[in-house]
Amino acid sequence: MSLHNVKKEAAEDMEPQSKRRRSSECDSDSWAAYPVLSDEQSQEAELIEAIAVPITNKKETSRLVRELSSLYPLPGLQHIKRVRACKPDSPHPLEAVVCLVSDAPHIDSEEAISVDSLLPSDRVRHDGLGEPFVVKVPACPPLTRPQFELASKHWPTSFHEDKQVTFALRGELFSPPQKARMQEYMLSAVAAARAGKESGMEAIGAVVVDPKLEKVIAVAHDCRGDHPLYHAVMVSIDLVAKGQGGGAYSFDKYPACQFALPTSNSTTETSQNEAVQPYICTGYDLYVTREPCVMCAMALVHSRIGRVFYGTSSADGALGTKYKIHTQKDLNHRFEVFRGVLSKQCEHLNGLEYIRKLK
Amino acid sequence: LCRLDMGTEREQSFHPSDEEIQRWMASAFDMAKDALENGEVPVGCLLVYNNQVVGKGRNDVNETKNATRHAEMLALDQLLDWCRHSNVDAGSVCERTVLYVTVEPCIMCAAALRLLHIPLVVFGCRNERFGGCGSVMDVTSAQLPHTGTAFQCVAGYRAEEAVEMLKTFYKQENPNAPKPRTRKD
Asked: pTM for this structure?
């Protein structure tokens, strides 16, 4: 199959590489791919109220921590540190968490909380303690660096950082060569979208890629002008099936919808036999100009897609906007989703679509 | 060809009688039984318009190697073909068509039914793994203004029978699989 490669033209140019890239309409520095994380990962860290107490004598700290931990072990709050250091201008050097407000005994709303009511003196010796006060602490362990940074503003919190997620949130997960490839794939999705629009379809394109072989498996555009359910993603899934000897749709009318036959890679075939046979979309990446709808998102779950990259969000989108079907715990397949790939060019397609509807 | 741009308002009076529901669901169950006897996923599904079956389907995932070829999707394709051949407007047919199916449609199929503006779905047992009409997600009445029209469901028709057929199927398919835990809805 022939793939639209916009960069080919540029390559014939005699300009030096750097200059050429800068002058190009599609500079891969002009966009960043951001992960679409689950609600637990992307929401602000939830805070709960706890009672803390000043430690006025530093030398008592280790005994106090031992006695406090035995009286109030704080199950479920292993992520917060028991003791924090105070600023140099504070009258006391340290502060310690005693317990959650909800776990504190005998607190009358009338009465101020006191050391006596909180800490029976036979369990915790009161030497070196100040008057208790209420603080906010993070309710759950932080999952991302932004959550960690917010949580730490309230109380020192430990954080097992997933560096991949941190890089991804900064839009720095992919290297320049990776981004160049991603851009090439999305450019062919954009080209397919334009071809679809030429034949009266909505300007949406989708490309399925085998990232291991760096090979394009299917190029599709929206065909809903002929069939209301032939969204670009549904079309691309059927094209993948066609390449595997199946398929259900007829593509005679759509020359821009193409699929690749599996290349017989002799080394993998002889050494690993059936295990390498492609199975629906397992291990494949999808590049789609616009965030998929509920039907398409669930079709991707059924097809066991590896990762999804999309250009722009859509109003009823199901991979970030209205739902995050790729993170749904009850479903048997989950996958990573990134948005923002070649966002401007994809946005431009939506503009074309808007103009078409006005006409 | 099959443009379905139409208002979201619907005739309130459109609802099949109990007798009709009974009759068409019996037919859907016959299809499911037939599938089971032929070693296929026991799901029966039909689209009925104006007392006439305009689409029916059974799961065709294995043959097509396309995991989206669920019974409902095939039935919807047939409905659109029927409209084309009968030279009638698909929009006006869909808005008066009922889907009768032995198992709750999955999230994908539920969204497809919305996109085609099917107003009513009658189903047997719940689909705990993929159900899009309340079991895993509820896309039937969700606020999705760009995803067709919300639809109504009549759930639980001969549910135990539908579950039993599924259990029988999954037992024969994999003799080594652990016994499914019985769950009463």
From this structure: 0.84
